[in-house]
Design a protein that fits this description.
This protein is an alpha+beta fold. It has helices spanning 23-32, 57-64, 70-77; strands spanning 6-9, 15-18, 43-46, 52-54, 78-79, 81-85, 89-92, 95-97, 102-106, 109-112, 120-122, 128-130. 20% of the residues lie in helices and 34% in strands. Strand 10 and strand 11 (120-122) form a beta hairpin. Helix 1 (23-32) packs across helix 2 (57-64).
């Protein structure tokens, strides 16, 4: 099986494409080249399948360290797209999400990417833009 063509998407439409590396090698390459002033990718797109993966830096570092198999990291990070909310999102009176937060689309729901809280909103919603 040939190595996948992976496109790492950064903010401001910056992209990095890997062509001759395995999935693990490509992720390691991207993590190894990061410096304190370098941005972290937001997502990975597999060119041949169109599959999208949220680039959760901690999970991908754990994958490189051997804590996850390739199948496990794919299951943990695969999504239907990444979005940002353009307006404040009110889940209830006490839980507000500021504009610009990052959300992943899974099973027709936007899921907030936040380690401290779980918020899920039905899609589509005109207050969300795809990145």
């Amino acid at each position: 099986m040939p190595n996948p063509i992976l496109i790492f998407h950064y903010e401001k439409s910056v992209k990095l494409t890997t062509k001759s590396k395995t999935f693990r090698e490509a992720v390691k390459f991207v993590l190894d080249r990061q410096e304190p002033t370098t941005f972290t990718p937001t997502k990975i797109v597999a060119e041949s399948t169109g599959k999208i993966f949220y680039f959760d830096e901690l999970k991908f570092k754990a994958f490189i360290a051997g804590d996850y198999t390739e199948s496990e990291i794919i299951k943990l990070t695969e999504c239907d797209g990444l979005f940002r909310n353009t307006e404040e999102v009110s889940v209830n009176k006490n839980d507000l999400v500021d504009p610009g937060a990052l959300w992943k689309l899974q099973s027709n729901h936007y899921v907030l990417i936040d380690e401290d809280r779980y918020i899920c909103i039905k899609a589509p919603n005109s207050n969300f833009i795809e990145i």
